[in-house]
């Protein structure tokens, strides 16, 4: 018994020590093509991944120059924000580094002369260059279609675009896995993985994480991400959708039987001020009208905050969303499941098992047209 207690104590202490990050001085000597103003370094990930010392980094600009210093354990990602300008991601690491910001190039990547950014400009960018060009091509296609009414596009055109975008996401994940295998000490790859989990769990994430060095996995964000990934893994394809704590407008809770009444059920996470979420409603209505009587159902789950109950109900009424709706107040359950990007949907089969995710209108319609034959007797 004494040995067991001693072992448990030592294990707890060793785990605690592993999570202790050593802070080192850093300095940022920056220039920007504005004479005055304030430069802010904004977090790119949830603040829980950052030490408190890095939560509010800013400096005044004088004659186009700014200076920021402090202590940091290893490379962390930030956006540079100056007035209406916001950069793409850059990384600050221990030691001295210069940052050159061109505020005329919004969403551009500033010039930074540190070790991590050198990796970004070379190995990392080289690995993603083909995919980035392909994504630019898709973006150009979308921009040309932007001013055209969505209904004017053929079903095949919309379906092809949806599939092309989805394949791009999958290729992005495959590249990250390959890159991590050859760059196990890459903080760029590590923070990229943290970012991707915001858009929902993917099985490949479980393969990527072990490829990082122990030096990264045993940092505070490394240990925290491992926990977050395990929690998010319950939403993987093939898993039974968990019963979460949410209620309908009559305060009735969601239960397991609600997920098994139909051949297929789409769980749709959204919130009332989310424009992309609202933009999906016309398409969902069309799919619902066409396939509901054949065994298709939608369950909407809003993550609106406590004071937004009326807004939640108003949007449901205005857009004539006739399916069932539940409220995950303040998004507590969604956050626990690492759902941070909206809209987010999951398609369940009649056993409540997740079979597909993040389906757009045409993909969903195509799937249902092939898999719903005749009418389905709904269970009560």
TrEMBL record:
Keyword terms of this UniProt record: Cytochrome c-type biogenesis, Disulfide bond, Isomerase, Redox-active center, Signal
One Gene Ontology term of the molecular function aspect: isomerase activity
Listed GO CC annotations: cell envelope
InterPro entries per record: AhpC/TSA (IPR000866), Thioredoxin-like_sf (IPR036249), Thioredoxin_domain (IPR013766), Thioredoxin_ResA/DsbE_sf (IPR050553)
Segments passing through the bilayer: none
Chief localization: other
GO BP, sorted A to Z: cytochrome complex assembly
Gene3D superfamilies: Glutaredoxin (3.40.30.10)
Location(s) in or outside the cell: Cell envelope
Cited Pfam families: AhpC-TSA (PF00578)
Matching PROSITE patterns: THIOREDOXIN_2
Ranges of residues in domain Thioredoxin: 235-378
Leader peptide range in chain numbering: 1-19
Alphabetized PANTHER family for the sequence: THIOL:DISULFIDE INTERCHANGE PROTEIN DSBE
Protein name according to UniProt: Thiol-disulfide isomerase or thioredoxin
Species whose genome carries this gene: Pedobacter nyackensis
